[in-house]
Specification:
- With about 200 residues, the protein is mostly helical.
- The chain has helices spanning about 1-15, 20-25, 30-65, 70-85, 105-115, 115-130, 130-155, 155-195.
- The relative contact order is 0.22.
Length: about 200
């Protein structure tokens, strides 16, 4: 149950299919081999960022005196912002400029894939885990999402031809709706904790 819950939440937040148009846009001048390498690099960067926060973010929260409920509410608010962006995306290419830097690192690896929503969601599940077994369950769910993320980006050209622009847009809208529901649930859980135990 924990694996499935963490897997679905992180998968929805990272939104592999929704990032296909962005990936193709940022790598449109690259050859197929370069695009494949960019997919791998972006996934490795995202994994490094999210795993770092998952493993060491708890100590930072403890030092700052941040509670689980506060993290859940904050994570929920961040996820709502991400959901609204999926439901009402900006014009294609807006705010995304091609530069000399490797786009697989920025903006693909972070903040598009390993953004605040993915970091917050992962930290919430790690914080909820009871015992090292459940922690590894959450980390395993994250690993499964990262594998799917890489495969989707790796075969983004094929996926784009199958779904077309309208299909990808429809998937992004559905993902946005699910993400909004998850965000509301996180906020409700945090608020319920405060109602029972106090702030």
């Amino acid at each position: 149950m924990l694996f499935a819950s963490a897997f679905v939440t992180i998968l929805v937040v990272m939104d592999p299919v929704g990032n296909v148009p962005v990936f193709l846009s940022l790598t449109r001048d690259q050859k197929a081999a370069q695009q494949h390498r960019a997919a791998l690099q972006a996934t490795v960067v995202a994994a490094s960022v999210v795993y770092s926060f998952a493993l060491f973010g708890q100590e930072v929260l403890h030092l700052l005196g941040i509670s689980v409920a506060a993290l859940e509410v904050a994570g929920g608010l961040i996820l709502i912002a991400a959901a609204l962006e999926l439901l009402h995306p900006p014009p294609t290419g807006q705010g995304r400029a091609q530069g000399q830097a490797n786009v697989a690192f920025v903006p693909l690896g972070t903040p598009l894939l390993a953004g605040p929503g993915a970091i917050a969601a992962t930290m919430v599940y790690v914080r909820r885990a009871h015992g090292i077994g459940e922690v590894f369950t959450v980390l395993g769910a994250l690993a499964a999402v990262l594998v799917i993320l890489y495969l989707v980006l790796r075969f983004s050209g094929v996926l784009s031809r199958l779904l077309h622009d309208n299909g990808i847009e429809l998937v992004s809208r559905i993902v946005g709706l699910l993400l909004a529901a998850i965000a509301v649930q996180l906020i409700a859980t945090g608020a319920q904790f405060w109602a029972v135990h106090g702030v």
